[in-house]
Amino acid sequence: MTRKPRRETPSKRVSDRARDTDRDLERDLDRALRFGADRLCLWCLCGSLRCRRARACRGDVQACSGRIVTWLKAIEAERRARPGFSEIEDLVKTPADLRAYRLWRRALGDKGYATGD
Q1: Is the distance from CB of 67 to CB of 42 less than 8 angstroms?
Q2: Same structural domain, 52 and 100
Q3: Which parts of 2-116 fold into alpha helices (H)?
Q4: Number of structural domains, the chain?
Q5: One pLDDT digit (tens) per residue for the chain, 117 residues
């Protein structure tokens, strides 16, 4: 005598589909993070020999992506703390300050800067 297979309840089918959807989302997230990590060359910052040898992410891509968030925050904080040349130019008000600023830029060796005295 053979047993009939148990019928799945509708709630079990829904939970299986939800689990499959979660796996698909996780896989898509990993794929997108790995693509971004490879384009940003995060393997250079990684301590894993496997990643550095392959010159691509070969480990936990979510952990590596978490590290880059810290780097990006530090870069953004530095950018805010030290204004760029265009932001400095906006602060220069008088002709004397403008001449001093242009002399300073020339002293820095900024070849692409047009003086326009």
Answers
A1: yes
A2: no
A3: 10-39, 49-54, 61-81, 85-91, 95-108
A4: 2
A5: 566 666 655 555 666 777 778 888 989 988 888 888 888 787 777 778 888 888 888 888 887 777 777 777 877 787 777 767 677 777 777 888 888 878 877 877 765 555 444
61-81 vs 10-39: helix axis angle to the nearest 10? 50
**Same domain as 62, residue 18:** yes
Please state, in angstroms and rounded to a whole number, the distance separating the CA atoms of residues 93 and 97.
7
The answer to whether residue 1 sits within a structural domain is no
Q: Which residue has the tokens 């509708």?
A: 10
| Cα→Cα distances 25→22, 40, 101, Å | 5, 22, 53
Which amino acid, residue 70?
Answer: T
Establish how many alpha carbons lie within 13 A of residue 103's alpha carbon, considering only the half-sphere containing its beta carbon. 6
The rounded distance, in Å, linking the Cα atoms of 31 and 54 is 17
Q: State whether 95 and 38 are in the same domain.
A: no
